[in-house]
Records
---
Amino acid sequence: MDLMTSAAAASVDVTSATADEVTGVLHHLAVLGRLVQAREIECIHRLEQLAIDHPGLSPEHVCAAASGRSLRAATAVVGRADAAVGLPVLTSMLGAGLVSGAHLDAFAAALRSLEEALRPALLACEAQLATEALSMTVEQFTTRLKAEVRRIEGDDGMSRLERQRRQTGLRQWVGRDGMWCISGRYDPEQAMVLAAALQAQTDSRSHAPHPPGVPSDPLLAHEWFQAMALADLVLGTGSGAPSFEVITVIDEQTWSHGRHARSRVDCGRGIDLPVDALRDLIGRATGRVRFVPVVVDRNGVVVRQGRPVPTFDDLVASLRDPVGLDLGRSRRFANRDQRRALRAMYRRCAIPGCDRHVSTTQPHHLDEWDHGGHTDLSRLLPLCQHHHRRLHAEHWQVDIADDRSLVIRRGGEVIMTTGPPAEQWR
Ligand SMILES: [Zn+2]
Ligand SMILES: [Zn+2]
């Protein structure tokens, strides 16, 4: 479909349209967006041709001025156009409205993540991967590309980790407003320990009585606590966590047979490490870090969970003697192991579309204690304060399947459904 036809199809009046008609318009709008992106690429290519004879002409500046974008955003558009030259299949599919510019960006990013000598191997799969992209969201396509990059590297990401170690760096400057600013880049191995330490210190700060001066906006307050936690760690002034935990999630197949195309190895915040590096890191335990091994199935549901341990050997032993996650009537509230399991399974609040991080949620009991409910992991759901309150106030009924997909009803009518928690990580 061309630009004009899909613009016409997307412009029909929807004030009295049926749901199907609105769906159709939304589809045409999505196609239109892709065609616009393809057209932009053509324009940038022409500007780059013109710039050869007119050295004063900068495609970035022309694009920024014409589209009201910042120079930085315009530079990204030019970057996409430059990447498109090397990706003929994805580019022609974008021109047909079949994939989005973000799919093309994902491929370009995967290409950049490879060492130069290995890039032709990924380029050789462009046509095959582009066909797969047709039925994938950008997130799914990104995961697929990561697996392909690992396959090409053939060493479970060890050479990439080497490169990332060399790319570590920290910049500091004083802003125009007089504030001291820092910006750092760490390889995933350092990142997992640093992020866990910062998280533990931030938690202990935010759970203590709030000092005056904490912003009232929750997001700004979180940033405030993080900044103070970093200062605590640098200056050694924090009263907080003497040790901290890294919840290490590995899927069953990777744990027993090694890395595969859909492996999930997650050391918190989506940080993925080569399994050997993880083994090595846990072997170099400092005493302050404790690892909580959690094995999940392909749906992201916990099948086994160990106790916090300092070394890799302990980790293996800890999983041989897993913790009990079903407490029945022996305990009314979720215990620490169950909270860890919820944190391992979920990235955010369990209500579809909610973006509250799981660390800020509360475990909700699907069966009320007063009505004989059991404190079993399968009956616990992490909910943010807002959704927890709504669920109780509006008497939502929640059905949870074995794979933890949900059907949520209000007054007998289905209001929301979700797939398994693994979907939150894709
Ligand atoms: Zn509740
Ligand atoms: Zn929520």
---
Amino acid sequence: MEKLFLPVLLGTNRKQRNSIHPAKWLVGEMEKRSEIETRLFDVAEFALPQDDYGQEIKHLFPEWRDAIIRADGLVIVTPEYNHGYPGPLKAVLDLLLREYVHKAVAFVGVSATLWGGTRVIEALVTTVRELGLAVTFSDLNFPKVQNTFDAEGKLLDPAVEKRARGFLDELVWMSRTLKWGRENVPSKFHQGPIV
Ligand SMILES: Cc1cc2nc3c(=O)[nH]c(=O)nc-3n(C[C@H](O)[C@H](O)[C@H](O)COP(=O)(O)O)c2cc1C
């Protein structure tokens, strides 16, 4: 079967961020699977201007745009900041619109507490729905992330591996099904080039 392109977006630019460990670890797990091609995008590497916003500046980020046009789905790795999402993550997501339509999105929630980012994921669902993305129903949560990885990013809790497999299985199913739909079921969103 054709490979699915499923980029991963790390949603915080905080210097001491622990979320980088689950993001990098998950990319490694995805790279082990023959049906997935992936690439890590990091909001810290987007030079977002202070004085402009949204689709008008998407031309400043051609690699991101090309990746989302080619993508079959997206993984968003996000920490929970005061029960919400980091501002830079929202700013990066808001760069594009039609590029996302009828593609799958899966969430990885990260927190230092017991809840593993469940509240930030719920907060993001309404946003990604407006972007035209279709949300999977298997999240991957990393509660107490500081105890789940060591300082070098080595996974300390092997139970995560099974949960990640189920999370990726669901994302692959959704992504493949939507890919078939985009290619075979007529929709005004899939006619002509995305400008
Ligand atoms: C501004 C800010 C707000 C935070 N708010 C929450 C929160 O609402 N719930 C929570 O579980 N953890 C919260 N945390 C702690 C994070 O869960 C913790 O930093 C964890 O390591 C994931 O975020 P990181 O990738 O920035 O490290 C907050 C951290 C910051 C910096």
